[in-house]
Amino acid sequence: MIDEETQEIFRQETEALIESLQECLLQLNSTPDDMELVTQVFRDLHTLKGTGAMFGFARLAEFIHDFEAAFEQVRSGNAVVTPDLIAVSLKAYDLIVALLEGEEPPTEQDAELKAALGAVTSGGAAPAAAAAAGDAAEEAPAAEGELEGWKLRFKLPPEFMEIGGNPVAILEELMEIGGPDTKVEALLDGLPALAELKPNELHTAWEMILPPSADEGDIRDVFMFHEDSMELELTAIRGAAPVVEAAPVEAEAVPVDAEAAPAEAVKTEAPKAEAKKSGGKKSGSANVQMRVSAERLDDIMDRVGELVIAEARLSDLAQKLNDPNLTEVVEDIQRLALGLRDTTMAIRLTPMSSITGRFQRLAHDLAGKTGKDFDFVIEGEETELDKTVIEKLSDPLVHILRNAVDHGLEDNDTRVAAGKPARGTVRLKASYSGADVLISVQDDGKGLDPEFIFNRAVDRGMISADANLSRNEIFHLLMAPGFSTAEQVTDLSGRGVGTDVVKSTVEALRGSVEIESELGQGSSFTLRLPLTLAIIDGLLLQVGEERYTVPLAAVEGIVEEPEEIRDGTESTTTVELREKLISIMRLREIFETGGTRADHPKVVLVRTGDQQIGLAVDRIIGSYQTVIKQLSPMHSRLNVFSGATILGDGDVALIVDVAQLVKAEGLDHDNKEQAA
């Protein structure tokens, strides 16, 4: 049994390969003739097999050997990519993932999947052979004779010896595989002129003839760690085929899981990685990569946060002492701290593409389970979020995607009868919005019926029949624990726990969920999440005797507070600013702050979603790097504050969550409904 440390190292090494493998298999489902993808699958499997053997994962390496052989059949033209092959390959992928995670699935699965892979690849070329049989007089395929040996031609990379390689050891290993009947010939065509010869580079190629007893897999395994950077050609030598009378061939029926999606049931549209376009390995980046544990990154982030706080204290002290020499040093420290903060933040940020692969697989499986044809479109994969946020996004998005397909999309006949295209569309989109990131799941299905949701909530005793709820409030009933609109429970949905998980997870990340829907046109669930949970640029404001911070990315402008609203005492009001009606929230009244009113109060214009809101404050102090400190559990109910920060003088300033504040004051849906 492999120890946990070795298992974790191996898991990290194979993480990118696994993502690449699944992505290529899903893309092959839509584009089965793309040989670049076939080659990429073969490369990923070959590297996984070699890495697994190196780390002692014998069962994994043995299973992948047969998996790899199936795609070698496709790569060599002896088989074609079919929906059955993709379905079995995805099950084989699941077994690989289980083995990587240290699980011990029954060994019978290995044999069953190997047999299924062999069956679908042996029958994969049957359609082509059947078509060719119709024109046998003109294009009869040549039958293969008995294997008489292997012809191997290879040229190792020029820097092979510089990195510690030994060509003689390679030749000896091949001789051992082939035995005494192996023939070797050095090919010197690539030798440069003597004046240009570099003694530390390898220019010789070799050609070998191995007997038929040599195993193809064993030959290729000799070059396991070099195949991607060398020239390698291995061909079978076969004798003349015997002439036999043609007989009708019936391809063996291969059972495929009922959950497998048909070839065109779901199309995934997402930008291919550059590695796929070039046919190179996904992990073969020219930049040197280094894996660092998440705990160390968190520790660095904590220390950078403390450095930012210390820098703020030093800056405050320098202003009081008014020493030019000290001020110059403080400016240098501020510049260095800002650069260190940005670099550390960049390390923590992770693109959405790191988790979209699993959603493509989910869409593929949902198409098979529901029998609905739809296009799954991903936009904004390059959008980056804090790694802590990314790690917790998977479950909420899985629940929303399931509901979009199971509840949202109609079946093909219903869509056609309603005048819609037979194929539906589910869109996963990520984008930036001020200091937030918006991740939305949209479908063009039947939409949400507010009246039906309201009545279902009344039947379940969640609200009274005379409750006066806005459209937005009715939609948010979907996220109440135990609520479901499903008529019956399935293995996909209907138990009323999915949307509750979405709400609790997103709120724990200081985010919110927005629901929009038009009956008959579709629905959109949008997760609004903070870009980071660590350090932000903040605008420090003074309200009475207290100071507050607003994320600078959400600020769109600062204006003088209009004379006509300065003496008001209500918490919110509306005024015309810059030729637009703007809702103004008086933070003094909302937070019940004491102290003398300022002579020249200001209005800070902030953006939340598609709304512009004004915050009436007494004074603008300035912009500062803000280290977010979580509030204690006792203060967790104060959701209008996303945290707190320590100022240079040691005082604490609360960080205002503008989106939650707008929601608490009832300005989020009221304005939208009035505008409608």
Automatic annotation (TrEMBL):
One of its GO terms (biological process) is chemotaxis. One of its GO terms (molecular function) is phosphorelay sensor kinase activity. Residues 266-277 have a biased composition (Basic and acidic residues). Involved in the transmission of sensory signals from the chemoreceptors to the flagellar motors. CheA is autophosphorylated; it can transfer its phosphate group to either CheB or CheY. It comes from Thalassovita autumnalis. Keywords: ATP-binding, Chemotaxis, Kinase, Nucleotide-binding, Phosphoprotein, Transferase, Two-component regulatory system. The keyword Kinase applies. The modification Phosphohistidine is found at residue 46. Residues 325-533 form the Histidine kinase domain. The keyword Transferase applies. It comes from the Bacteria. This is Chemotaxis protein CheA. CDD domains: CheA_reg, HATPase_CheA-like, HPT. Residues 535-667 form the CheW-like domain. Residues 1-103 form the HPt domain. It catalyses: ATP + protein L-histidine = ADP + protein N-phospho-L-histidine. Residues 260-287 are annotated as: Disordered. The lineage of its organism: Bacteria, Pseudomonadati, Pseudomonadota, Alphaproteobacteria, Rhodobacterales. Pfam families: CheW, H-kinase_dim, HATPase_c, Hpt. Gene3D superfamilies: Histidine kinase CheA-like, homodimeric domain (1.10.287.560), Histidine kinase-like ATPase, C-terminal domain (3.30.565.10), HPT domain (1.20.120.160), SH3 Domains (2.30.30.40). GO terms for cellular component: cytoplasm.
